[in-house]
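Justification of resources, computational component.

The compute hours requested in this renewal are based largely on the per-chain cost of generating structure records like the one below. Each record pairs the submitted sequence with a full structure-token output. That output is archived, and it is also reused by downstream analysis tasks.
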Amino acid sequence: MFIRTVEHDTSLDKFRAEVRDFCERELPSVIREKQKRGQHLEKHEYISWLQRLGSRGWNTGKWPKEHGGLGWEPAQFLAFQEELGRAGAPPLMSFGPTMAGPVIYTFGNEAQKRQHLPGIIKGDLWWCQGYSEPGAGSDLAALKTRADRDGDDYIVNGQKIWTSTAHWADWMFALVRTDQTAKKQEGISFILIDMKTPGITVRPIIGITLGHHLNEVFFDNVRVPIANRIGEENKGWTYAKFLLANERVGNVDVAKVEGNIEQIRQLMAETREAGKPLSDDPTFNRRLAELEVGLATVKALMADQLAAARLSGAPSLMGAAALKLRGTELQQGILQTGLDVLGRHGMVYQSDALHAGWNGEMIGPESSADVIYEHLYRRAATIYGGSSEVQKNIIAKGALGL
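The structure output for this chain reads:
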């Protein structure tokens, strides 16, 4: 009888140790403490941290080496995410490294690569996404923001909505309609817009969390060089689908999910009912076990899609849809469990506690405000990046040929 053994990957252990040591030395204590309390970071704090990661090439470690990345294997990227999460570091921002960057290095010309990729690698620039519009959310192809040619420029007019961190952004990648007579997916182009261009107005949207990360963006005769168009005119839907597959994989931060589960475990140990901690309650223990199984499933799906991206340049649309669907439902399940553990304390949302300098008295456990914030914020997880209904349609078409 032969027993097959699997050799342990010591190189991955060394890499994890390297990331832990880096975080211990380089992660500012102010940011670490804010992350621990679930408090909001300022842009300069985020940029400072991203630049530190960029000094090692770690913002874009999973990019191919020929485009300035490190060519990480899926296991290495997942290990990197996990170690950042365990160190209490901010999550990676996906707009540049996961979304804009791969589109630029796959479909952009050499001048565009030279202009934009170094800033993404170094973490110097902040990007935002100009996709959704008031009448074009899940039906993204119904967008109406138009770009009309005028010499060497496009004149852009229209509106984008739900634009995360547009008030921080240096650049936007946007879908615009360059052929007003074409139907749906035809006639759309993919352009890069400098957010300092005259005619752009950013207005805040205060969401259910009472925080500001969402925005409306208005374009009033905004002049954008045609040289900022990625690829061919009217072929933007092709590039948009490529980006969406990457976005949907990026929507699921396994380190964040793992951290949320650990937070729930601690809350269960701290919360007592009838003199006993909820960690002794079989119902909550079963729910926690189900969430841990869900996390293992999501990690496997993530590794599969990272491997697909490594081989073909992007995840598969169907695989990314399955990961996005399963991952966002898991996020919501974890946070609903957290709210259930909080019980009556979950009825009081002290949003001011999420801002630095707050010195009030917390009602309930110290993490209450963070758990409630995350619960409210992630209610949109099954909508943003393509609703769950859209993901199910993609899976049905791919798997069943419908």
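Confidence is low (pLDDT under 50) at residues 1-6. The longest helix spans residues 282-312.
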